[in-house]
From TrEMBL:
Primary location class: cytoplasm
UniProt keyword annotations, A-Z: Actin-binding, Calcium, Cytoplasm, Metal-binding, Phosphoprotein, Repeat
Residue span, EF-hand domain: 47-78
Pfam families with a match to the protein in the record: CH (PF00307), EF-hand_7 (PF13499)
The protein's name in its UniProt record: Plastin-3
One GO CC term on file: cytoplasm
Calponin-homology (CH) domain span: 114-230, 258-369, 388-498
Matching Gene3D superfamilies: Calponin-like domain, EF-hand
InterPro entries on file: Actinin_actin-bd_CS (IPR001589), CH_dom (IPR001715), CH_dom_sf (IPR036872), EF-hand-dom_pair (IPR011992), EF_Hand_1_Ca_BS (IPR018247), EF_hand_dom (IPR002048), Fimbrin/Plastin (IPR039959), S100/CaBP7/8-like_CS (IPR001751)
Entry annotated with the keyword Calcium: yes
Transmembrane segments: none
Amino acid sequence: PDHICSPQASLQHLLSAFVDLDGNGSICDYELHELFKEANLPLPGYKVREIIQKLDRNKDNEISFEEFVSIFQELKSSDIAKSFRKAINRKEGILAIGGTSTQSSEGTQHSFSEEERYAFVNWINTALENDPDCKHALPMDPNSDSLFKSLGDGIVLCKMINLSVPDTIDERTINKTKLTPFTIQENLNLALNSASAIGCHVVNIGALDLREGKPHLVLGLLWQIIKIGLFADIELSRNEALAALLRDGETLEDLMKLSPEELLLRWANFHLENAGWEKISNFSLDIKDSRAYFHLLIQISPKCTEEDQPHTDISMAGFSEKDDLKRAENMLQQADRLDCRQFVTPADVVSGNPKLNLAFVANLFNKYPSLTKPEGEGIDWGLLEGETREEGTFRNWMNSLGVNPHVNHLYGDLADALVILQLYEKIKVPVDWTNKVNKPPYPKIGTNMKKLENCNYAVDLGKMTAKFSLVGIGGQDLNDCNATLTLALLWQLMRRYTLNVLEDLGDGQMANDDDIVKWVNTTLSKAGKTTKISSFKKTIQKNHIVGFLMNLFEKSCQRTPETKL
Ligand SMILES: *[C@@H]1O[C@H](CO)[C@@H](O)[C@H](O)[C@H]1NC(C)=O
Ligand SMILES: *[C@@H]1O[C@H](CO)[C@@H](O)[C@H](O)[C@H]1NC(C)=O
Ligand SMILES: *[C@@H]1O[C@H](CO)[C@@H](O)[C@H](O)[C@H]1NC(C)=O
Ligand SMILES: *[C@@H]1O[C@H](CO)[C@@H](O)[C@H](O)[C@H]1NC(C)=O
Ligand SMILES: *[C@@H]1O[C@H](CO)[C@@H](O)[C@H](O)[C@H]1NC(C)=O
């Protein structure tokens, strides 16, 4: 248990967890497959069968317990052990297997923000206040480092992820009681895999970092998780009333291109304008004196429209207070009356902490958007389509790889191909950033030409270097945000990425389409599905492949027996 995070120990644990699911005294490939999944090392079917072949000395296609024991010593130094080691040591990829990342183990001291620690602890305490599974950890003391200890078993993290994006984590897969180093490790892997599935960038963080509570890494991950939750509904397709923020001459499409941060700023300014107050251009310097916040609170607070309607009259008594800190405290007391005293202290307001003030405003928006959906003004609501599951997965996949900037809108944010070019690097296709790529800020005149050139380059790289099949796709299509054609490129990128990951898992052995088909075949038949697939080129539609890859990407969060396809 002391060395549970070492690869050997994990392997040992996997093997000592030897179980015989169907109780016939031996282990078959299905059972082994389950074991690998349990150990958070899902392996393709062909790999599992290879292992069986290696272990099965009397060639009856099953491994008896004796065979297993007799071979155990050898196994330690075998190729299988090597691939495990490699899998466990992976620093990047769809499988966030535990361990300490190189970056975090360099021994350098990282400073962290006590303001953030204070803010996040209070937020978590409130959010999970009534969750019986978190009783052992909550409430945490915001003034101490107890956060880092309390998150160490992974339960609170899993809960926060599921709160930010509901249904990310299957309740049953969290080990909540009788925690051992192994089950803790499982919980932490589950948290990391799930965080990655909702689009957090977790490349530089491992289970051990969380277990040990490395402050800068824990806070970094928490902020990503919290932000995803805060921003989830700041999106036109989720809240049509945001169309009230349209300015003269703008279309819904223009508004749809804005990032959540930009929408929040618009929203605040919309209310400030109604209040006759000056606009702000950021949640930093411009809010330091709390005066904009006072006006915002008045605008959004529930008004007394009918008798007996609950309402809150915001008091402006503190508005003309001379001292900045006292004014901020007065403002926050009013926010408290709306149940929105979150994320910032008076000092955070006065110092203009941009991150925490952004969170404060996002929470205000979520609780009191106070917008009315405009009616019958020639707005083409047909444009408003929520993201499909497929699109969401692609987006989360890119974000989990740490592309910059963060992708909020699958097509619009790819229109200059910069993110796509970063994805090429992830699949080991070199990009000539110096000579072939136009980087922002783009010139005022000819912006789109610069973006189009990038798109052309991205398509060329796909055709010439990555050898993708991109018949009939041009840079213009990416630049035009053509969904079908952009997806055609994206799924090939994701597919190549996945094959690379499988290859790494197989210790350098080439994984190819056939391996995947075999794996899918096995998984399907074991899950009692009658559908079989024969080859990528023939039967499988593009959508099936995408579905399969998404499944591969997502299943790390769902250790349920059925593999959905
Ligand atoms: C995750 O969220 C869903 C829906 O909100 C809920 O039914 C489920 O119990 C949650 N799981 C956990 C682990 O909290
Ligand atoms: C952890 O949880 C899983 C899913 O509920 C369960 O199958 C497994 O037995 C648990 N492990 C331990 C050691 O309790
Ligand atoms: C915020 O906006 C003001 C102008 O309103 C500007 O002077 C200041 O530099 C901005 N601060 C940040 C952090 O962007
Ligand atoms: C995207 O491109 C395809 C193929 O050229 C075309 O049929 C389709 O109409 C385009 N979609 C849009 C929305 O322009
Ligand atoms: C998958 O199953 C189908 C139907 O049983 C079979 O024809 C095909 O050869 C299998 N493919 C692989 C790669 O195992």
